[in-house]
């Protein structure tokens, strides 16, 4: 039997719970129920492999001191059911666990046996998860915020899939509402101007060069055919033409970014199917709306929100908020997703609580919706804010960024920090071929391994494989890092933070480089050489799995 880190942790947690049960049965501790047990990895090696602070969480309930609780738990702990070698108590009541020497070698057996599946877990148990991200306004090109949202959303989709969820990646096309009206007015003004009609351009219209390009191309194809059309009909034709162009460009850019969606969901379909008005009507029937100033409002404050929100304006047009509720009802009720995850900009913070409240109000559960709020990123070159796009004025587009630094660097850098963190994207560092560049550092580790394995001339097929020969601290530390992958996958899901996998990739690369500088792979000791070659192969496999999750290449040569 092999022992992954996850199995070892489960064994320890189970035995702590059994210890608490025995304490309760013997009257040593009075607890109404078993508490949730969590393990942490101590920063200092002298405190063992794992630690729990459960004894510090129980004094109020048990009326006992933390140290007494820790000693009582340890006194009932049966090591024979685990891979624990020793249990100690530190400070006011931390319980530390040191594992047996041989547990770690089972990790290499798991990596070899599971191969491309190593790291996958059963956390999701086949539940359906919908991840909606980017959902860029289709009235123009994608920008930097979309680029970060793409890396986060695709990374989140991958870790969910690796954690055993059935994942659907979705792009929500905002092809209804005020922005489409403004888009149509902008297209119409440019079309008429190009065809010699003197009209003023809308003051709040879209002034990007892409509007002019679209209408020049449209005019080449259709001439002045639509000049005499009714304005509403003309705008519908122009919107349909330009939206198709923009959406195709979005799909093209995303493909070059390594992202392909399962579903492209049109907001307009909600209005066409009367789903938005139906949701408002249902909320009204449930008593959660009221009329004020000619508008229909949702009683969000009754669900703990800071303010109520408008569902239907006084001109009888539904708000974006109403459409958003209908969209999430479609996900959770009609399409029966267990979990909806959205990646939004941090400026949507107040909107999140109101959408979750509306789901509660309509008979679903707001807990089925989670939103990853991401901060913007500042592009810097030589320490100063960078401007890259001459075509788009101050806008930096996704295609500009990929052209400058490449797909891998863009995706890796956008996932270097937790989504809620601000950070500077260093354009110079992203293209630098040095260990200071984190994506180069990780990819170079994989390429270096491939080079090592290509140069191995010795025939080791008849040499017995004995992992226990790997006794050096650098070897054991590297194996320990490999053991963390399944745990990191689950942690990335639970914290909704795919940057954990990016940082893990850097840890694997660092552990490998440290090992390689300290331990010769090619040696006269053939059994030891075989064990080290297999360790190197395990690192190669894990790096390949991790880069797959991150959506970047694992090059064999650099």
TrEMBL record:
InterPro entries: aa-tRNA-synth_I_CS, Arg-tRNA-ligase, Arg-tRNA-synth_N, Arg-tRNA-synth_N_sf, ArgRS_core, DALR_anticod-bd, Rossmann-like_a/b/a_fold, tRNAsynth_Ia_anticodon-bd. Its main location: cytoplasm. GO terms for cellular component: cytoplasm. Pfam families: Arg_tRNA_synt_N, DALR_1, tRNA-synt_1d. Keywords: Aminoacyl-tRNA synthetase, ATP-binding, Cytoplasm, Ligase, Nucleotide-binding, Protein biosynthesis. Transmembrane segments: none annotated. Residues 442-558 form the DALR anticodon binding domain. It catalyses: tRNA(Arg) + L-arginine + ATP = L-arginyl-tRNA(Arg) + AMP + diphosphate. Its EC number is 6.1.1.19. GO terms for biological process: arginyl-tRNA aminoacylation. CDD domains: ArgRS_core (cd00671). Residues 10-99 form the Arginyl tRNA synthetase N-terminal domain. A motif ('HIGH' region) lies at residues 136-146. GO terms for molecular function: arginine-tRNA ligase activity; ATP binding. It is found in: Cytoplasm. NCBIfam families: argS (TIGR00456). Belongs to the class-I aminoacyl-tRNA synthetase family. Monomer. This is Arginine--tRNA ligase. It comes from Alkalibacter rhizosphaerae. The gene is argS.
């Amino acid at each position: 039997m092999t022992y992954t880190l996850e199995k070892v942790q489960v064994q320890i947690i189970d035995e702590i719970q059994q210890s608490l049960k025995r304490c309760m049965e013997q009257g040593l501790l009075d607890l109404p129920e078993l508490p949730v047990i969590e393990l942490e990895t101590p920063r200092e090696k002298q405190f063992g492999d794992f630690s729990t602070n459960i004894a510090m969480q129980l004094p109020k309930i048990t009326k006992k001191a933390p140290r007494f609780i820790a000693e009582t738990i340890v006194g009932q702990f049966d090591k024979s059911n685990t891979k624990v070698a020793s249990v100690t108590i530190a400070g006011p009541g931390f319980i530390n666990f040191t594992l047996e020497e041989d547990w770690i070698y089972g990790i290499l057996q798991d990596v070899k046996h599971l191969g491309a599946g190593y790291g996958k877990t059963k956390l999701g148990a086949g539940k359906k998860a919908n991840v909606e991200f980017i959902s860029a306004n289709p009235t123009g090109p994608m920008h930097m915020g979309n680029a970060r949202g793409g890396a986060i959303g695709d990374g989140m989709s991958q870790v969910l899939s690796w954690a055993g969820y059935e994942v659907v990646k979705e792009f929500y096309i905002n092809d209804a509402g005020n922005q489409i009206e403004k888009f149509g007015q902008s297209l119409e003004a440019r079309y008429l101007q190009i065809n010699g009609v003197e009209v003023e351009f809308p003051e709040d219209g879209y002034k990007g060069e892409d509007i002019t390009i679209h209408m020049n191309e449209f005019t080449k194809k259709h001439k002045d055919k639509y000049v005499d059309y009714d304005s509403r009909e003309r705008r519908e034709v122009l919107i349909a033409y330009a939206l198709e162009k923009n959406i195709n460009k979005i799909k093209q850019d995303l493909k070059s970014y390594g992202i392909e969606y399962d579903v492209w969901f049109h907001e307009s379909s909600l209005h066409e199917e009367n789903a938005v008005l139906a949701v408002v009507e249902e909320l009204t029937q449930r008593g959660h709306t009221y009329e004020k100033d000619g508008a229909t409002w949702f009683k969000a404050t009754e669900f703990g929100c800071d303010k109520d929100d408008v569902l239907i304006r006084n001109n009888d047009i539904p708000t974006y908020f109403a459409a958003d509720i209908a969209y999430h009802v479609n996900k959770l009720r009609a399409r029966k997703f267990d979990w909806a995850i959205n990646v939004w900009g941090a400026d949507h913070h107040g909107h999140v609580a109101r959408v979750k409240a509306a789901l509660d109000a309509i008979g679903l559960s707001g807990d089925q919706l989670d939103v990853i709020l991401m901060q913007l990123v500042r592009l810097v070159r030589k320490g100063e804010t960078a401007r890259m796009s001459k075509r788009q004025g101050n806008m930096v587009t996704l295609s500009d960024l990929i052209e400058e630094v490449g797909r891998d660097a863009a995706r890796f850098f956008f996932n270097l920090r937790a989504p809620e963190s601000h950070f500077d994207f260093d354009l110079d560092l992203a293209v630098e071929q040095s260990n200071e560049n984190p994506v180069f550092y990780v990819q170079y580790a994989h390429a270096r391994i491939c080079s090592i394995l290509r140069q191995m001339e010795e025939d080791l097929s008849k040499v017995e494989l004995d992992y226990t020969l790997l006794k050096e601290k650098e070897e054991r530390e590297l194996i320990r890092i490999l053991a963390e992958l399944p745990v990191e996958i689950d942690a990335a899901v639970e914290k909704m933070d795919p940057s954990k996998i990016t940082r893990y990739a850097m840890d694997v690369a660092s552990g490998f480089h440290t090992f390689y500088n300290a331990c010769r792979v090619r040696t006269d000791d053939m059994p030891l050489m075989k064990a080290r070659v297999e360790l190197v192969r395990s690192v190669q496999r894990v790096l390949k799995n991790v880069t797959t999750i991150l959506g970047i290449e694992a090059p064999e040569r650099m």
